[in-house]
Design a protein that fits this description.
Blueprint (H helix, E strand, L loop, with lengths): L3 H12 L9 H17 L4 H16 L9 H16 L15 E6 L6 H16 L3 E6 L4 H14 L3 E2 L7 H14 L4 E6 L7 H14 L3 E7 L4 H14 L3 E5 L13 H5 L3 E5 L7 E3 L2 H9 L1
Helix pairs in contact: 1-2, 2-3, 3-4, 4-11, 5-6, 7-8
Bound molecules: guanosine-5'-diphosphate.
Length: about 300
């Protein structure tokens, strides 16, 4: 699992404080240094780590207000709270359109897990909310992408709208939305094209799709295994499209993963879900507080 290394290092950092009736300034400084290194080693964004350490230090130097906790527990509680804060504090849900359909535009780099995640989310809404989603195949650059979405649609029993690869994606989206309205689908997922890197042509196309679709949500699918690139990708997509949120995939992988956890702090956009595997039900709602507890071990 991601974050195992981080958990071990944080626990080591706290070990020196345990059993102490009072924590000296030197103890605190040593612990903060270890926490800082642990976060940097886990690939958390440098400036995010700096802010984090500053905040924890300020709180730790403040009045002892946490009754019933010994000094070590107090520091752990402060770190827990600040980690939660860094990842977004509250759990964020999808925005729901006041009238159907809620239109969810999914964007991301190629291989991030976008198409898989479209299936996972549609499947979740179908099972939990009895939703009737429609999936629109708007990635016309890779014929395999349309096939893959069709396969996923079959697997979860959700219809897929496609017009092959010779039609302008903007037109496909318009036609797909028309069909969704006729069929009273309550959710529409637009599976857009990805590239290996952010480029202007891709962003322009996505902006054009955004303009005609007027989506309720624009969710960026990011591969948590890509380190600092995950953060740069999120910044790039957010600048061009003003995302509503992020989905982190591949958290089941054996990665440091910390970079991805800086996304909220860097872009201001919340993580809504995490992908924990390749299967259709490997999608979890992201709870910053639970993730902080998991990281602290
Ligand atoms: P797209 O190019 O962004 O549409 O990416 P795909 O949906 O085709 O996914 C790329 C690969 O990542 C596929 O092999 C997926 O099965 C895999 N994948 C997607 N999400 C996850 C995840 O959360 N965990 C793991 N382990 N694999 C994932």
């Amino acid at each position: 699992m991601a974050f195992e290394g981080l958990t071990n290092k944080l626990q080591n950092a706290f070990r020196n404080l345990r059993g102490k009736g009072k924590i000296s300034e030197a103890d605190l400084r040593a612990t903060m240094r270890e926490i800082r290194l642990a976060l940097l080693d886990a690939d958390v964004n440098f400036s995010v780590v700096r802010d984090f350490v500053k905040k924890v230090q300020a709180k730790a130097n403040g009045e002892n207000v946490l009754e019933g906790l010994n000094p070590a527990q107090q520091i752990i509680k402060i770190v827990d709270d600040e980690l939660t804060q860094m990842m977004g504090e509250e759990t964020t849900s999808l925005i729901k359109a006041p009238k159907i359909p809620t239109i969810i535009m999914m964007v991301g780099l190629q291989g991030a897990g976008k198409t898989t995640t479209v299936g996972k989310l549609a499947n979740r809404l179908k099972n939990d909310d009895n939703a009737r989603p429609l999936l629109i195949a708007a990635d016309v650059y890779r014929p395999a992408a349309i096939e893959q979405l069709q396969q996923i649609g079959n697997q979860i029993n959700v219809p897929v709208f496609d017009e092959g690869t010779n039609v302008d994606p903007v037109k496909i989206v318009e036609d797909g939305l028309k069909q969704a309205k006729e069929n009273h689908n309550d959710y529409v997922f637009i599976d857009t094209a990805g590239r290996l890197q952010i480029d202007e042509k891709l962003m322009k196309e996505l902006q054009n799709i955004k303009e005609v679709a007027n989506p309720t949500d624009i969710l960026l699918v990011v591969d948590a295994m890509t380190g600092q690139n995950a953060v740069n990708t999120a910044e790039g997509f957010n600048d061009a499209l003003d995302l509503t949120g992020v989905i982190l995939t591949k958290l089941d992988g054996d990665t440091r993963g910390g970079a991805a956890l800086s996304i909220k702090a860097v872009t201001g956009k919340p993580i809504l879900y995490t992908g924990q595997g390749e299967k259709m039900n490997d999608l979890d709602v992201f709870h910053p507080d639970r993730m902080a507890s998991r990281i602290l071990g």
